[in-house]
């Protein structure tokens, strides 16, 4: 299970749940703004706060099931795949855009439902093979998209 999947499932349980990923990869779960439980970056390691009775949390069984699935997932498999902006020209309007209607063009890095500007590694490899993307890939800068979840 990916961190993003766990976040989505837990936050769907109740508006009172929130999540974050710590610096060392711990997945923290909050209930009403207070740390309630976590899944360590180490496999099979789940914890909860001693002053909270876990069983009394809303949807505790479902929450535990989600946490368990995340805990058995190897740490490296929990993270989302790295994604990148393809910066072709200097400036804020120098990014590769692949549009559903307009095709390939250079503009901002703002992604919309009609324009793709964020690409995973394998998508970039496919772009390199396309004839309608005439770029010198040795001169292109791949800017990582910052997203933990």
Describe this structure in words.
The chain is of the alpha+beta class and 149 residues long. The chain has two domains: 3-78, no CATH class; 83-144, no CATH class. Helix content is 25%, strand content 29%. The protein has four helices and ten strands. It has helices spanning 3-13, 60-72, 75-78, 121-129, and strands at residues 17-21, 27-31, 34-39, 46-48, 83-87, 95-99, 103-107, 115-116, 118-120, 141-144. Strands 1-2-3-4 form a four-stranded antiparallel β-sheet, with helices on one face. Strands 9-5-10 form a three-stranded antiparallel β-sheet. A three-stranded antiparallel β-sheet has the order 7-6-8, with no helix packed on it. Helix 1 (3-13) packs antiparallel against helix 2 (60-72). The radius of gyration is 20 Å and the shape is elongated. The model has no long low-confidence stretch (mean pLDDT 90).
Short description:
By secondary structure, this protein is an alpha+beta fold. It has helices at residues 3-13, 60-72, 75-78, 121-129, and strands at 17-21, 27-31, 34-39, 46-48, 83-87, 95-99, 103-107, 115-116, 118-120, 141-144.
